[in-house]
Amino acid sequence: MIISALEADNFIKSVQDVSACDPFACRIISLFNSYKPELVFVDYWLIADENGEYNGAIARNGSNFILFLSGKSDIDEVSSFMRVAGASAVICDGKYSLDLIGCKTLSGVVLVRKEAFEDEETEISFIEPDIKSVYELMTCSADENFVPPSFDDFYVDVNHKLRHNSTRICGIERDGILAASAMTVAESENAAVLGAVSCRPDYRKRGFGSTLIKHITNRLVSENKSVYLHRAQNANEAFYDGLGFTEYGAWREYYLIR
Questions:
Q1: How would you classify the pairing of strands 103-113 and 169-174?
Q2: pLDDT of 118-141, one tens digit each?
Q3: CATH superfamily of 111-249
Q4: Can you give the pTM of this predicted structure?
Q5: 3-state SS of 166-191?
Q6: pLDDT per residue over 210-221, tens digit each?
């Protein structure tokens, strides 16, 4: 059964009872904390078995869906729900294969780190950059593995999530410009998902990216949060291995052609 979050006594607790520390659960909880279900562009559901026991969750932001699935989730039912829900994109744990007609997929690896870095750089000054500078840096350092959203969508979303403490941004400035930045794209009580790690091309190979990741990771670990990364297949493999992130699982994203 797929049940509206409005029918649940406590949506976040219901998700955490399935798994308190999961990157996809983190993304759904973070979205819920930022945008309540009364808003027209978001929706949230719980997945339950015939006895009413919850075993997963679904979130919609516009036409983009996030699925938190478990071994007890009815994948056929979830697939049917996605086919009629008007989804344009669906992301979920890569070990579950959805039956979606007419779609293309991308996949990659989910990495995790739960321990602090002992060799964090202490002489570098970190800043909280403005959203416009972060977006400009993202666009100038983007590659085939990441296509930035529109500026208006990015600005409104990040500004809102900063006010609701569901994201944080950190940067390194050099020569009066933002040389590198990274952010959490989702945060919950138990976990965080890192993303948008960017470095201006002419400032690469100076260790700024790894320094930022260590800094943010240590802040998150000190708050008892597991830190996750979604890495594209065969992208930046040596970089993250060298930072001590280990493989947690996989992610798969479906793009429905309509």
A1: unpaired
A2: 877 777 899 999 999 999 999 987
A3: Gcn5-related N-acetyltransferase (GNAT) (3.40.630.30)
A4: 0.93
A5: CCCEEEEEECCEEEEEEEEEEECCCE
A6: 999 999 999 999
